[in-house]
Amino acid sequence: MPEKVALIGSGNWGSAIATKIGKNVLDKPDMFDATVYMWVFEEYVKEVDGKWERPARGAKPPEGKTWVDEGYRPLTEVINEKHENVIYLPGIPLPTSIVACPDIKTAVTGATMMVFVIPHNFLAPIVPKMEGAFAPGAVGCSLIKGIEFEDGKPILISDLLQKEMAKGPGSPTVDMSVLMGANVANEVAKGDFAEATVGCTDLAIGAKWVKLFDTPDFACAAVQDVAGAELCGALKNVVALGAGFCDGLGLGGNTKAAIIRIGLAETAKFAKMFFDGIKDETFMESCGLADLVTTCFGGRNRKCAEAFAKGEGDWEKIEADLLNGQKLQGTITAKDVSTVLKAKGLEAEFPLFTRINAIAFEGMPASEITTF
Q1: Which of 4, 20, 208, 236 is catalytic?
Q2: Is 236 one of the catalytic residues?
Q3: What confidence category does residue 88 fall into, taking pLDDT thresholds of 50, 70 and 90?
Q4: Is-above-0.90 flag for pTM?
Q5: CA 17, CA 103: separation in Å to the nearest integer?
Q6: Paired sense of beta strands 51-53 and 44-48, if any
Q7: DSSP for 225-287?
């Protein structure tokens, strides 16, 4: 039977990966069901002067009325009519195989392959609603970049996701892979060539994910190393803060290259210290070196760290000024990593991670980024 794919998430990156998944399920009918339900957190939108808008954050419709009464439409309805996510990926057509769905249980019913690309704080409220809906033996793949910490050690988002899915009575353990890499969503959606890495527990399962994601302009390869691939995706945001500090100070390419090299080495060391089975070759894949490089030259963490080094405000102000409602990941991760290193007396073994946290949160001048 063809694999039935569900896509849980429809933001910028979720909609971008939908362009690859949606194409492949149509091109490979012997392997995949031709319909992919994409779970969408329902919002209301209205076209004004050729642009789609949402109500202001926290706004409510006038008393006794709904947003529909005010001329707004459900986002899922607009996506399915126009085959475009007019809010999170405007101007990019979605394949007709992608069907927006506001109900998570409906979206995953019968699914044998589930792709997760939602903020990790959505996992706890959303995953329990999936119970009993997806197919027995279903597998999952997380595109969520981040990391949690518990009892003095890092916890993978893929492990948290697997744990949430196994909570219900008789719920199965779902094998989890990850997709990580140098993947700026808008560039991927436009068709600019990019690579990505599937971190998997089993290469046969990894091969299935590669067939779902891989296209001529989005080259995917599998490595049997979930933890290594996932930690690269989380810790690169910490290194990007260091790169941003360099940019804010007006330092050149030599300095940023040194930060990138040291950051990659500390990432590998951290991964091997806390997880078994980490492979050296993982750090030379797209999830490792490539993602680190692109994040240190672009992205929100580098951008905000540059502003911080220039003295443009504290992190909260910089987020509000520059990120249009998005949140930084690198600052949270830097603080958590530092807490673990301090608790275990390992700060001297990770001088760059330690220095980045000291600049970000302990009042050390950004000019000290290279003096460790």
Answers
A1: 236
A2: yes
A3: very high
A4: yes
A5: 20
A6: antiparallel
A7: -HHHHHHHHHHHHHHHHHHHHHHHHT--HHHHHHHHHHHHHHHHHHHHHH-SS--GGGGGSII
